[in-house]
């Protein structure tokens, strides 16, 4: 397993780095399918960084409880600050998501959210994580994903390749992230028993928002 990246130093400036590089597009992508989670009551949010998605989720769903997992203590502090009055409905877990196991609770998660997090993992790590989480989600759970993508063709493809390589280089230097290549998270989630039900592309396909559901008929093995 690669070393865990350290995003602590970026927690205070992350939002500004994002606005400076992508303007409002990442925020818009994260919010694309937020309304699909209106009925959700128990969420697992992994790698939410400074917690702007979690804050909106808490405001939209006044009864939801959130487990927030992140390797960075500074990011989790920031997440709790952004949660404001909803912070008492958030349990933070400072852990490497690749080896973290959800707490044993009666109610399974009906929402998983990962925004620009799966690209910090390798394809095999995403598959292992998704297979583990599959045992902790309800049959009607949804998994909301935001990710970068390399469009299939056109000018956007020519632009996306060096842009994404540059982002990996920057995060490698700033956080020690060792992943250098965009994983095919779709293949990993599919193999783990999830099916993509909705997709919305932005910025000519360089950003993608997706909703995944539990694949009907595929049974998960028991919890470990
Ligand atoms: C690129 S940032 C994305 C932040 C935010 N979700 C967004 O949409 O911009 C990745 C986040 O995932 C966390 N992270 C990266 N690798 C991790 C791992 N293996 N386990 C847990 N958290 C991790 C980082 O600390 C950081 O908060």
Outline:
With 224 residues, the protein is of the alpha/beta class.
Provide an overview of this structure.
This protein has 224 residues and is of the alpha/beta class. It has a single domain (8-148, 183-214), classed as Rossmann fold (3-Layer(aba) Sandwich). It has seven helices and seven strands; from the N terminus they run H-H-E-H-E-H-E-E-H-E-H-H-E-E. It has helices at residues 14-22, 25-31, 52-60, 73-83, 123-134, 155-175, 185-191, and strands at 42-46, 65-70, 90-94, 109-115, 137-148, 194-202, 207-214. A seven-stranded mixed sheet has the order 3-2-1-4-5-7-6, sandwiched between helices. A hairpin with a 4-residue loop joins strand 6 and strand 7 (207-214). The longest helix has 21 residues, at 155-175. It is globular. It starts with 13 loop residues before the first helix and ends in a 10-residue tail after the last strand. 40% of the residues are buried. The model has no long low-confidence stretch (mean pLDDT 94). The chain binds S-adenosylmethionine (SAM). Residues 4-5, 7, 26, 30, 47-49, 69-72, 75, 96-98, 115-117, 120 line the site of S-adenosylmethionine.
